[in-house]
Amino acid sequence: MTVATVAAADLGAASGRVMLARVGRDLLDLTEVHRFANEPVQLGLTLYWDVLALYRGVLAGLREAGRAARAAGGPERGLDGIGIDSWAVDYGLLDASGALIGNPVCYRDRRTEGVPERVHARLGAERLYEVTGVQQLPFNTIYQVAAAHGTPAAAAARRLLLIPDLLAYWLTGQQGAELTNASTTGLLDAGTGAWSAELATAVGLAPGALPPLWRPGDLIGTLTPDAAARTGLDATVPVLAVGSHDTASAVVGVPAEGERFAYISCGTWSLVGLELDAPVRTAASHRAGFTNEAGVDGTVRYLRNVMGLWLLQECLRGWQEQGEPAELGELLAAAAREPGFVSLVDPDDAAFLPPGDMPGRIAAFCRRTGQPVPASRPALVRCILESLALAHARAVEQAQELAGRSVEVVHVVGGGARNELLCRLTADACGLPVVAGPVEATALGNALVQARALGTLHGTLTDLRALLRAHTAPRVHLPGTDRSGWDAARRRLSGVPSLP
């Protein structure tokens, strides 16, 4: 086919959307057809995802995508392909009949408190990193599984499916795990690219609980009769494996030229790193908190998770709930006028991970570290964005040192690319040009991998990115020449105990 008409279902930690893409050798068009909320639900002491509502949103989005595609003269069956990506680490459990056992638990739930230490005492943190190469974050799948061991749900479970794979299963009836997302779990051997039986057994997973692996571009299956009826699509429409970890798709959507670039996939989280050919599993990499996750075409996403715009999002949500909402554009404009480097926080401090009173937590951090508490909302936003820019710069510098590769430019993609103040501050903090955009890098990467799997596109990531550059217009932010303020800010934070 000369043009592939595909749907990219992109699920984030705050919302989901389905994008309709038309892709050809000289064509790259992307339209949002449906958006829906994704908010965890607190029930008792546990924080859950409403995964059935997510599935309903995906079905509605696919129905709208098919209608829009047919109205534009697209394929009679509605779509040429469907790809799903989402956040990482969370999962659903299936019983012996293939039914879901309860709602998946949200990674921000507190059930893993103290669990990494127990797992490390048994397996050894260094050994775990040697096998998986994964940053040891408290919400990694391996720790969630260990926390759930011994519960009735875990005892009844016969299969574990990560979130995008669970939705693909409901669409197709096929069970599997896409590699880029599987690599985030802490259960995959980074050397062999296969599940680690040793680690799975150690945290109590039953034999066969981890499904067969798919790679980006693989055919997962075609729509079940039920999914076809609910979406109005033909049952022959294929569901294709893409980079189902949203960062893997976002990195495909980085319009880079050559290899001397760093990327920041910036949204609720900032994923900051390099694209490499092989993992870096040294002791220094482990101490610095870097992860080696599988990318598309056998690449390695060597990166560090930084808390990202979550701090700002939680402030905005809290003010909204208090009946005192803030308009983000006005707030950012006011923050740009605030004096710099008054107060700084470590975005990765564990206090900032759960939902709740974010302004209060930032104030407590400032008091604990002997800094002024931000006196206004613009001052608070300035504090958050300068702190995040410093965390971006630290991760970019460490990645270069640990991987032995220098970079000439930093690409910021995702929702954070819209935030001009953050992008400008990041350029200043890194001392490198920042290329901001595309905002929809994840959906674009999802669609490009589908189009190549369908035979519409050919070639490597270099070829896919050339098409991106021809059809996107990112904004370039050049760094300022005076780095004294940033150097002083870095020195101020270097003594904060929570920094790695």
Spell out the CATH superfamily of the largest domain: ATPase, nucleotide binding domain
CATH architecture heading of the largest domain:
2-Layer Sandwich
In the CATH scheme, what's the topology name of the largest domain?
Nucleotidyltransferase, domain 5
Major pleated sheet = 7 strands, mixed
Helix fraction by DSSP (H/I, runs of at least 4)? 25-40%
CATH class of the largest domain: Alpha Beta
| Strand line-up of the largest beta sheet | 17-18-16-15-19-20-21
State the end-to-end distance: 50 Å
Please identify the structural class as seen in this structure.
alpha+beta
Note the overall shape. globular
**Number of helical regions:** 19
Rg of Cα set: 22 Å
Which residues sit in consecutive blocks of at least 5 with pLDDT less than 50?
none
Count of discrete structural domains: 2
Q: Give the overall pLDDT as a whole number.
A: 96
How large a portion of the residues is in β-strands, by DSSP E?
15-25%
- Secondary structure: number of strands: 21
InterPro entries: ATPase_NBD, FGGY_C, FGGY_Carb_Kinase, FGGY_N, Rhamnulokinase
Keywords: ATP-binding, Carbohydrate metabolism, Kinase, Nucleotide-binding, Rhamnose metabolism, Transferase, Xylose metabolism
Organism: Catellatospora bangladeshensis
GO molecular function, one term: ATP binding
